[in-house]
Amino acid sequence: MLNFGAVTWLSKKQQTVNFSTTETEFVTTASSSCQAILRRLL
Fold it and tell me: Out of the domains of life, which is the source (predicted)?
């Protein structure tokens, strides 16, 4: 517990290889958006 909230950690092998900063930012934004949508549905 950290500041009275649960903390989780996940380590996994990288699934994609990006060749540019823009591509990395796009993939990160898309992944974060999907996670936010899924959390709202829960």
Answer: Eukaryota
